[in-house]
Design a protein that fits this description.
This protein is of the alpha/beta class and 285 residues long. It is built from eleven helices and ten strands. The radius of gyration is 19 Å and the shape is globular.
Length: 285
């Protein structure tokens, strides 16, 4: 599933961390790693060298990978989208800078814009990520809201867990403010809450069925609370190394909710987040 990985590089800390993660993924999957520098102003100091050394210096223990490097011109998301089409990349890895940092112009806002332009998974690596590609990714978290769109993340989550010999965690967060409706205003009745959590557990089961995760270690979890906060808490409590989530880029209601959650997680989590394009249910009315 992963034969070619594109990593966007510049001279920022977030880019170096993204290169380290990309190299680890390429080594694990036996994929070609394409280091791409976007010279958006038409100039760059030794851009070809920059593209090559950003990956070469990222880590010494991730393994040997087949490396290519390219320097392209243009606005970051548009240029990367075109390069994805030209090269047939399977995954894009990009650093995410702090919104107040100088790298935000290229690798902060570019993440959101890139997600709206490409149909392949985008792995966003925050500059605060504790990246150690020499160590295995032991815990992979996938999240679901019970929708068909969310299940698009299932095969990718299983792939990562299998390749890294990691535990796959599947989490469903029940947001009482949206799912309990009027019951929550005066306190949801116990039997109704039990049914909501039972349905959420079924959603986790459906996700795992779509994931075909019979050969990986699995942890199931159902939590109550606001969805982004619940995911954030679980990441910290369970020591999650990478999060996989679907984000529908259509105008469907489920897609809007998924997209909102993905955007929030990209802004707050300190671990890499793999965002997969969701697919609308063809049987939906």
């Amino acid at each position: 599933m992963i034969d070619r990985i594109l990593v966007a590089v510049d001279d920022t800390e977030s880019s170096r961390r993204a290169a380290a993660v990309a190299k680890a993924f390429a080594a694990t999957h036996g994929a070609t790693l394409d280091a791409v520098h976007v010279a958006d102003d038409g100039t760059s100091d030794d851009p070809a060298v920059l593209a090559k050394t950003a990956v070469a210096d990222a880590t010494v223990d991730a393994g040997t990978v087949e490396l290519e490097s390219h320097v392209i011109d243009g606005d970051v998301p548009e240029a990367l989208e075109e390069h994805v089409r030209d090269t047939g990349a399977d995954v894009v890895v990009i650093g995410r800078s702090d919104p107040s940092g100088v790298g935000e112009r290229l690798f902060g806002g570019a993440v959101d814009r890139l997600l709206r332009r490409v149909d392949i998974p985008v792995l966003a690596v925050p500059e605060t990520a504790d990246v150690d590609p020499a160590a295995a990714y032991d815990d992979v978290l996938a999240t679901t809201d019970g929708s068909h769109e969310a299940e698009a993340a299932a095969p990718w989550a299983t792939l990562l867990a299998r390749e890294f010999d990691a535990t796959l965690h599947v989490l469903r967060v029940v947001d009482l403010s949206t799912e309990a409706g009027g019951f929550d205003a005066g306190g949801a009745r116990a039997e109704y809450m039990d049914r909501l959590e039972g349905d959420a557990a079924d959603d986790v089961g459906d996700f795992l069925a779509a994931a075909d995760a019979a050969d990986v270690a699995v942890e199931r979890a159902v939590r109550r609370g606001r969805v982004p906060d619940g995911i954030d808490d679980y990441v910290r409590e369970a020591g999650i190394d990478v999060v996989v989530i679907a984000s529908e880029r259509s105008g469907s209601l489920s897609g809007q909710l998924l997209g909102s959650v993905a955007t929030k997680l990209l802004q707050t989590l300190d671990v890499p987040v793999l965002v997969v394009a969701g697919e609308e249910d063809p049987d939906a009315a």
